[in-house]
Amino acid sequence: MTTSVESGAGTENSPAPMSLGTAAARNLATTTKSAPQMQGISSRWLLRMLPWVEVPGGTYRVNRRLSHTLGDGRVEFVTRGAEVSVIPAELGELPLLRGYTDATILRTLADGFAQRDFAPGDVLAERGRPADQVVLIAHGKVDLVGEGAYDRPSVLRVLAGGQFFGDRALAADEGGEWDFTARALTAGTALTLPRRAFEEALGRSEGLRAHVEAYRAERARPRNEHGESAIDLASGHEGEPVLPGVFVDYELAPREFELSVAQTVLRVHSRVADLYNDPMNQVEEQLRLTIEALRERQEHEMVNNREFGLLHNADLGQRIHTRGGPPTPDDLDELLATVWKNPGFLLAHPRAIAAIGREFSGHGVYPESVDVGGHAIPAWRGVPILPCGKIPVSAAGTTSVLLMRTGEEERGVVGLHRTGIPDEYRPSLSVRFMGVNEQAVISYLVSAYYSAAVLVPDALGILENVEVGL
């Protein structure tokens, strides 16, 4: 025999309710809703901190003084198992061979390099010994240690894969002595070319000999420390001496930056736009999230784009390496020395900022904070350290830290954009109605125009191979 229980009546184990339940009451209540949320939105400090320059014609030309670049690149290698060899054409990155294109001679020189595997602490060149070879670092880190002012060794520079030393020994008419000691920080591989092998190639090739003589003549031309043509001036004189006459030469082919674009087509069904706009406008919310995604892509491109991204446009002479691996106070001081003329801010991945905090705490150093737009931002030497998740972290747990000076008047880094474009929704961003198709879907073309430029090389410095852990 079965018994039925009336609605609202209790059972043997649960007493009858004495009031209306929340599940039923919610049918008559209005739900409070948030705007659509998006996890991919970041602080985008780079876009906020860069001064933006108006580019009416879509192209920005960076005019500079004429400079004599004699080669400051990085060499690439080919690895076959444990054997490493230099790519012949890459020898053109050496100052002495910049612009030399004879493939046969370059192949001969490349074949003359001998491989040397080194361990931590090994000496690759010793101060006071004959400088009779050029050394290419294929892998690993090497300290160049010179004699300090107070009879103590001083680290002059840290070299890593792709960099080299000893090229000046080949450029000199006669061999000299090493004025530093090259000591390995880590295990690695180097390739060495003796001066003897280079002179043999020089004796066999009239073209190489003429190229080397032209290079030596170029080095003898007066230049300032930045490689720019020297401006002769007179000072401290008396009477009526003949003053030097000068002119300031410009680059004949200055670099131009065209505005890049990030675009997408936003589609919204007309039924959604007509019927489901209360309490929030569906088109506006779709557009807001789309614009956020475009701005995130814009910042990513301004950091990583191979044409104008900051990581790829820093001068190779402005790239330094950590002395060990994790970022120490000494490393940040070295980075500040690359952009010492009124540095603006440091930009680092959040994991790099955490690594900086760990290392500083380990050294008993506690950076101060500075106010940036109402935010308390950690700083070093008064320069704020801003987070940017667009800076990549490698699978090995290494990343880069950027330091920049900003603004046209400061000869720094600037953002480029164009305002006043048709259908402009926000500065340099347009939302253009594209019509309604046969399926009643409304389309909008959303476009953002932008780029970045480094006005002079010392406006941007990068600390590379910063270990942040896995």
Walk me through this protein's architecture.
This protein is α+β, with helices and mostly antiparallel strands. Helices cover 22% and strands 29% of the residues. It has eleven helices and 25 strands. The strands form six sheets. Strands 15-25-20-16-19-18-17 form a seven-stranded mixed beta sheet. Strands 1, 14, 21, 22, 23 and 24 form a six-stranded mixed beta sheet that branches. A hairpin with a 2-residue loop joins β17 and β18. The protein is elongated. It starts with 21 loop residues before the first helix and ends with a strand. The model is unreliable at 1-7 and 68-72 (pLDDT under 50).
Structural topology:
Layout: H1 22-25, H2 45-49, E1 52-54, E2 59-62, E3 77-80, E4 83-86, H3 103-111, E5 114-118, E6 123-125, E7 133-139, E8 142-147, E9 153-159, E10 164-165, H4 167-171, E11 181-184, E12 188-194, H5 195-204, H6 206-219, E13 255-258, E14 260-269, H7 270-275, H8 282-304, H9 310-313, E15 319-321, H10 329-338, E16 345-348, H11 350-362, E17 369-372, E18 375-380, E19 383-387, E20 398-404, E21 413-417, E22 424-426, E23 429-436, E24 441-454, E25 460-467
Parallel strand pairs: 1-21, 15-25, 16-19
Antiparallel strand pairs: 2-13, 3-4, 5-12, 6-11, 7-10, 7-12, 8-9, 8-11, 14-24, 16-20, 17-18, 18-19, 20-25, 21-24, 22-23, 23-24
Order of strands, widest sheet: 15-25-20-16-19-18-17
Cα-to-Cα separation, first versus last residue = 68 Å
Give the number of DSSP strands: 25
Helix content, binned percent: 10-25%
Question: How many DSSP H or I helices?
Answer: 11
Report the radius of gyration as a whole number of Å: 31 Å
Shape: elongated
Mean pLDDT figure: 86
Protein structure class: alpha+beta
- Strand fraction equals 25-35%
Low-confidence stretches: 1-7, 68-72
Major sheet description: 7 strands, mixed
